[in-house]
Amino acid sequence: MSSAADIPLLPGEELVTSAAEITHLCPFSGALHGVLYVTNYKIYFREQVDNNRVATTVETPLGLISRVDKIGGQSSRGENSYGLELHCKDMRNLRFGFSTRSSNRGQVCDAIMDAAYPLSASTAPAGGAATGSTGGAAAVPALRNVFAFSFRQTFPEDGWSVYNAQAELERQKLPKTWRISKANENYALCDTYPSVIAVPSSVNDDFLARVADFRSRGRLPILSWIHPDNHATITRCSQPRVGVAGKRSPEDEAMLQHIIDANGKVGTLCIMDARPRLSAMANHAKGAGFENEAVYQNTELVFLNIGNIHAMRESLKKLKDMCFPTIDNNKWLSNLEASRWLENICLLLAGTSRIVDLIERSGTSVLVHCSDGWDRTSQLCSLSMMMLDPYYRTIKGFEVLIEKEWLSIGHKFGQRHGHAGSEQRAPIFVQFLDAVWQISQQFPGAFEFNERMLIAIADHCYSCLYGTFLYNSEAIRVREDIKQRTQSLWSMINSAPYGEFTNPLYAPSIQEHVLSPIASLRKLRVWTAYHLRWNPRMQKQNFIELRNMQLAEMREALKSMVDNLQRRLDGNVQA
């Protein structure tokens, strides 16, 4: 009889069920015979060996499982024709054969499904967050069996203290033309927006409510970032509710003029609509659409032709199919082209570069939106801010960027990451991380963090080990008291040994400038360390990672020596 003592457990982790006589059908090592364990956090397979050979183990957090397929039935004939296939969100599939004499498959499958789909749609009111109507605080779906609420490990650093909305806006040194508003303090203005927002000083809170009425989901234009010198801004919102009849809102039109006036130097506003023009036009039939330049004075409307969540989901599926379990070298380039994954990232970087160029070189303010303003808009705004502001390229600055532009402004992590069925799933956030990695390859000394940190974030945004990425909005996380009930991913990252997530090539004194990556397919490549890591033939050599950590430690030691010498020199000068 298997017990919890047979497997490594995290604080708070418990064994739920196990099954013996299991065959793991590994595409690289062949059939491995052993025991499969299911805890309240992960599945864990341990090979049974009869000699001194080290047993092979395979594990994955339950939150990373996107689909569970039952293979065959107990009457099935043939070796390993009865079992489970687990489709994972981290680019791999795991297949386990069960003995036809076993009755454990149903129990194992149920335990996996409970954690793989923790959003209980049955307990959410009609039109609530589980069905995707608002994604806000109006309806809070129940989270069942999520390990983050049981995880009992503590860390020296408190990751929940990394981000403070007011402090971050104050760091940007807002001029008098902008103010911090608490009109959304109770999330009544917009339940998918943060409680603290920045708006032009020339508008009052009653005016904001009328603007919100004309924007999809109430997501009115708010400030994301302001240039420290020319005061050009990045603002974001959702699409206007113009509809087929071309409805107008004097308040919404005036709001955009207030944003223009707050610049003080350039009297135009560029509206970056992330969608293809035809897609935006199709939204007219749904009562939404895009701004008419004839009525929105002093604006220029640009469509960036970035696909929707369904296109990105299909794109990643094709990429996964070509990367796992086998790679067809003869069709690698044609399959990569057919996936359109790098093409989609190229479009994203091209749109970002246009925003950065307008802000930095022309001093023109930019308003970004897509449909609801929580997917492509989050990608474009956060990438632009990272390219413009070196603070967001530090470890803590990058954490602040994710907290600000993704978590607090309402990217629907609960739905996009598949905690409640598949229709609303999309790899929008992972695509953003891939784009960050692509930029880091063009500017290897510009980022304090390394790709290990990007991969850790990519894994744990799905794993449900930390509370950081649970639910769809700040309002729900506040209501569910996530900061008190769970640990933050940033606690783990900021408590890690120096060098684990640090880029040894980071040179802040050299790299404090605006990044201008080349948005061309010839400069992009597949992120091997993430997308291909489960193929042993494609894995990086361990000595490279070890050498990077050693370089980071040496760099820190040398920096400490320089600081000590500088203090001694300063002391001699004063003497």
From TrEMBL:
<dbReference type="InterPro" id="IPR003595">
    <property type="entry name" value="Tyr_Pase_cat"/>
</dbReference>
<feature type="active site" description="Phosphocysteine intermediate">
    <location>
        <position position="370"/>
    </location>
</feature>
<dbReference type="Pfam" id="PF06602">
    <property type="entry name" value="Myotub-related"/>
</dbReference>
<dbReference type="GO" id="GO:0004438">
    <property type="term" value="F:phosphatidylinositol-3-phosphate phosphatase activity"/>
</dbReference>
<dbReference type="InterPro" id="IPR011993">
    <property type="entry name" value="PH-like_dom_sf"/>
</dbReference>
<dbReference type="InterPro" id="IPR030564">
    <property type="entry name" value="Myotubularin"/>
</dbReference>
<keyword id="KW-0443">Lipid metabolism</keyword>
<dbReference type="GO" id="GO:0046856">
    <property type="term" value="P:phosphatidylinositol dephosphorylation"/>
</dbReference>
<feature type="domain" description="Myotubularin phosphatase">
    <location>
        <begin position="159"/>
        <end position="531"/>
    </location>
</feature>
<comment type="similarity">
    <text>Belongs to the protein-tyrosine phosphatase family. Non-receptor class myotubularin subfamily.</text>
</comment>
<dbReference type="GO" id="GO:0012505">
    <property type="term" value="C:endomembrane system"/>
</dbReference>
<feature type="binding site">
    <location>
        <begin position="370"/>
        <end position="376"/>
    </location>
    <ligand>
        <name>substrate</name>
    </ligand>
</feature>
<feature type="binding site">
    <location>
        <begin position="308"/>
        <end position="309"/>
    </location>
    <ligand>
        <name>substrate</name>
    </ligand>
</feature>
<dbReference type="GO" id="GO:0016020">
    <property type="term" value="C:membrane"/>
</dbReference>
<dbReference type="InterPro" id="IPR029021">
    <property type="entry name" value="Prot-tyrosine_phosphatase-like"/>
</dbReference>
<dbReference type="Pfam" id="PF02893">
    <property type="entry name" value="GRAM"/>
</dbReference>
<feature type="binding site">
    <location>
        <begin position="283"/>
        <end position="286"/>
    </location>
    <ligand>
        <name>substrate</name>
    </ligand>
</feature>
<dbReference type="InterPro" id="IPR004182">
    <property type="entry name" value="GRAM"/>
</dbReference>
<protein>
    <recommendedName>
        <fullName>phosphatidylinositol-3,5-bisphosphate 3-phosphatase</fullName>
        <ecNumber>3.1.3.95</ecNumber>
    </recommendedName>
</protein>
<dbReference type="GO" id="GO:0052629">
    <property type="term" value="F:phosphatidylinositol-3,5-bisphosphate 3-phosphatase activity"/>
</dbReference>
<dbReference type="InterPro" id="IPR010569">
    <property type="entry name" value="Myotubularin-like_Pase_dom"/>
</dbReference>
<dbReference type="InterPro" id="IPR016130">
    <property type="entry name" value="Tyr_Pase_AS"/>
</dbReference>
<dbReference type="GO" id="GO:0005737">
    <property type="term" value="C:cytoplasm"/>
</dbReference>
